[in-house]
Write a structure and sequence with these properties.
Blueprint lengths: L1 H23 L10 E5 L3 H13 L6 E5 L1 H9 L6 E3 L3 H9 L9 E5 L2 E6 L13 H6 L4 E4 L5 H12 L3 H4 L3 E4 L2 H9 L5 E5 H6 L3 E6 L9 E6 L8 H9 L1 H9 L9
Parallel strand pairs: 1-2, 1-3, 6-7, 6-8
Antiparallel strand pairs: 3-10, 4-10, 5-8, 5-9
Helix pairs in contact: 2-11, 3-4
Length: 264
């Protein structure tokens, strides 16, 4: 637990310093690239999108990845940034409610799924329709999840486990990570026999395999909203937002396993 807290503190500090460095750079003038606060699960896809934008002749955006909850708090604290790309609506709602979004720029861009993963060489098998199956597969190990109290991936995972009647048997056996990639890393390293991550995270790793996919009806829709922050100073912020929302931008995310947003 101490190690996890130290890792979280280092991660958040690094994220904040990256944003601060971009803001304080002498290049932050009329040609300054937009600074994007983005959910950790967007890492590979948003890097690819930033490369695509740069190939069109624009300054490459500065990307800062962490849990949506941590990034929202940074924005609330006045961290210099231009866009916020969240892994759920709640944290975007919080910024919106405080008047921190540029009006008319918010859009729900993507969807995703959550899956149960195990190390690639694991023989674990889990039937999600049997509440005893997952706890049995854990054995003496722990279930890796992003923090279910605050981080979107963890909240979606907890909701699914509650719906399926599994949560009471595993809530005291959770290895909580500061974001979904930290939870994924625990499984990749074999420190947890099972973990709950997004389908896109599992697809990005050659070290895990998908054991089961949680039914979409077992948790709230997984939605990724994007908006320009009201304090944005980059002239490219709106343009990059529009590029991500375009057919070409969406196609990049679809290649990495994201889906069109689904609501119910």
């Amino acid at each position: 637990m101490i190690r996890q807290r130290q890792t979280a503190a280092v991660s958040l500090l690094a994220s904040f310093l990256a944003v601060l460095a971009a803001a304080c750079s002498p290049a932050r003038d009329d040609a300054a690239p937009p600074v994007v606060l983005a959910a950790a699960s967007l890492q590979e896809s948003l890097e690819a999108a930033a490369d695509g934008w740069a190939r069109q002749g624009h300054p490459r955006p500065v990307l800062s990845f962490a849990a949506s909850s941590a990034l929202a708090r940074q924005a609330e604290s006045g961290a210099p940034a231009d866009l916020f790309f969240s892994a759920d609506e709640k944290w975007m709602d919080e910024l919106d409610g405080k008047g921190l979004l540029r009006p008319g720029t918010r859009i729900t861009l993507l969807g995703n799924a959550i899956v149960l993963v195990a190390p690639q060489d694991s023989k674990a098998a889990v039937a999600l329709d049997d509440p005893a199956s997952l706890p049995a597969a854990l054995g003496d190990g722990r279930l890796a999840m992003a923090d279910p109290a605050a981080v979107p991936a963890g909240k979606y995972g907890k909701a699914a486990l509650e719906t399926l009647g599994i949560w009471p048997a595993v809530e005291h056996r959770v290895a909580s990570g500061e974001n979904v990639r930290a939870a994924l890393a625990l499984v990749e390293r074999g420190e947890a026999p099972l973990g709950i991550v997004y389908a896109t995270d599992a697809a990005a790793s050659a070290k895990v395999r998908v054991v089961a996919t949680f039914p979409a009806a077992s948790h709230p829709p997984i939605l990724y909203p994007l908006a320009v922050l009201k304090t944005s100073a980059s002239p490219d912020a709106q343009g990059f937002r529009d590029f991500l929302a375009s057919d070409a931008g969406r196609a990049i995310f679809l290649r990495y396993g994201f889906t069109a947003p689904q609501t119910r």
